[in-house]
Please model this.
Amino acid sequence: MNAVWPGVVYHVDASYFIFRAYHSLAGDFADADGQPTHALYGFARFLADLLERERPARIVVAFDPGPGGETSYRHSIFPAYKANRAEPPPDLARQFGLCREFCRLAGVAAFASGRYEADDLIGTFVARARSAGLRNVLLTRDKDLAQLIRDGDLFWDGGGRDRYGYDEIGARFGATPERLADFLALTGDAVDNVPGVPGIGRQTASRLLAEFHSLEDLYANLGRIATLGLRGADRVRRALLAHRETAFFARRLTVIQCDLPVDATLEDLRPRMPDGTAISAFFEAQGFGAGLRRQFERIALRAPADCG
Model:
C-alpha cells in the first residue's frame, strides 16, 4: 500500500488487533509485578508500525465497551446478543485499559462508548469523513464493518495480505456493502449470536440480494423467487414468510449506526506529537525493551505523509 495516499482517514478496530496479539504472542511479556503485557505489546507494535509506515494525517482507534457491555444498545433490544461469547480473562481485560492509555500517550485519538460498539464509532467517523470528501481505510477483519466500504475505500487487516476494495467485498463476504447488513439478517451471525431465517444460507442469501436491493424489496416481491432458478425456491419463500419478523429484527442488530453524537471533529483525528518521556516511562513499567521507544522517537521526527 502506498504510504502517501492523500485525503484518507484510518479507522482502527482495536479489539481485532488486541485479541490477535493476545492469542498469537508468547506470554513472555510481563510488568514488574508479573502481570502479562503481551496483548499490549502486540497492539503497541502494530500501531507504531502503522504510524511509521503510513504516516496518516488522520487516524482514530475505536474500542468496544468494557465490562458492563451487556447494557449496550444491541443488548438492550436483544439480551442474548453475543451471549455465546465467554468473558475475556482478567489479564486481557486489564490490557485493554492499558491499550487506551497507550493511545493517549502516542497522540492518537481513541474512543469508546458504554452504549455503542466500536463498529458504530467507526461508522460515525466514516460517515463524517465521506461527507468531507475523504476516503476511508478500515483496519480490521470484522466482516460487519465491510458494510461501510464505498468506492475508493479499503478494508484491510493491517498485515498487507487481506485488502479489499468496494468491488471485492461481494465475493469475499457474500453481498455488496450496501446489502451486507441485510445479508447477515437473512443468514444470521453465529459469531454475534444474531438470529436469521432458518434454512437461508450464504449462497441463497447472496442469490436473493443479487436480485433484490434490500429486505424491503425482497419481501415486496416474494412471488418472483420462483423465477430465479433457486433450488427449493418454494421452501425459501415459505421460510421467508414465516420468519419475516425475525429478519427485520435481526437487521436492527446487524446494521451499523453512523450518526452517534460523538464530540469530536475530523481535525481531532490528526495525530499529536507523542509524549516521548511518558511513553518511555510507560514502556519501562510494562517491561518492554528499547525498540518501541526508539521507534516512537523516529515517528516524532516525521510529519504525516497525508496533509489533505
The radius of gyration is 21 Å.
